[in-house]
Amino acid sequence: MKYRSKTARFLAAATTAVVAGTLVSCSSGSEIDESEGIEGTTIRVTLANHVWTETIKELIPEFEEETGAKVEISQLAEDQLSDQYNVKLNAGTDEIDVLMYRPLQENKLFASNGYLSDITEQVEGDDEWDWSDFQSGPASLTTYDDTVVGVPIITERTVLYYRKDLLEEAGLEVPTTLEDLDAAAAAIHELHPEVAGYIGRTGKSAAVTQFSAFLFSSGGKWINDDGTSAIDSEEARGAYQFYGDLIRDHTDATINPEMSWPEAFAVFQQGQAAFIADADSLYKNMTDPSQSTVSDQVGFAPFPEGEAGSKPYNVAAWALAINESSENQSAAWQFIQWATSKEITLEMSKLGVMGARTSVWDDADATADYPAELVEAIKINGENGVGEDRPLVIQVAEAREIVGDPIVAAISGGDVDAAAESANKAFDEFLLEDAE
């Protein structure tokens, strides 16, 4: 791992400041001046309990040695972290400099409330650090109103998991379209009635994330450009129906109506399903012999194409941002710049933490411990991926409950059109309130 020496780094920053001017005003008047040295500065960083956190803590002494700054870590469980942010950021605390947050849940809320500093000029102004190296899906998710407010550190995409042995026995190729997936699921279930052709999340809220790939690939979306609900469109109704039929039509088992990923994965791990499309970050649950009875038969493929092509989600599960009320803006940025550098992202990737940098996924050292098929699927899904897997609103949990209603209706064999119409009306009302 390489990090430029303190002297070289700050001379380069100072030169840039003189030539181009790097003093940047943020929305509340705070400033980031990259020409400032940060020796002796204490950077207060709040992080979630995560393998990324445990790894970065081991590497931080190098950053401290190179910069002369001290990093003070506050580490909390996810729920505790949210509670603290809700209280402290809302109160305008200056006790947090860098925060690890969930863009899917909190980017719109935090950015619209003015909690996050504008770092657009920083990310776009450092050619060596290279913002263009970040995949477009995660990068779009940490952007608000064309302003960059965060840097992705942990990502995931939808990947198609499949049973190699069952496909081979049935004489089938790996599905490349949703139509092929449905046909393959039907054929394998016919050969093995005890095996579900396809298994997936069924819980109203839990299923939304994985259903999104079916929605986007069918040409649908959650919200129209004018801010109204899009879940009653022909494309959305078709996606709801397809997802429900795919799960219900190719199994003889009673479908658990409350499955999230652990329950759905368990069905596949126990050899009772041929296909599942879910997060690539969970792949070790399928390939670990202590967890999966079919670990040696698991294959990986890009998400199949629908009418609109292959459009799985490609999202940032976690990101780093600067607290707008921090008095250590320059030091906070320099910490983020280091923690999201190509070198650190490479280190994280080797440990199984999936980052957003394209260059890392092209690095053989970074991907050496990943299944080759998975790496290829990640690259393809990364290029095609959409930067959301749920409606990007302020009250995310409530939105998921609403748009998830037609999923439940479809899986149970109910009236999808009626469910979509009802949910569309409720979602329209929700969006009006959410925008206020």
Automatic annotation (TrEMBL):
Signal peptide coordinates: 1-20
Stored InterPro entries: Bact_solute-bd_prot1, SBP
Domain of life: Bacteria
SUPFAM superfamilies: Periplasmic binding protein-like II
Keywords: Signal
Keyword Transcription in record: no
PANTHER family listed in its UniProt record: ARABINOSE-BINDING PROTEIN-RELATED, DIACETYLCHITOBIOSE BINDING PROTEIN DASA
Protein name: Sugar ABC transporter substrate-binding protein
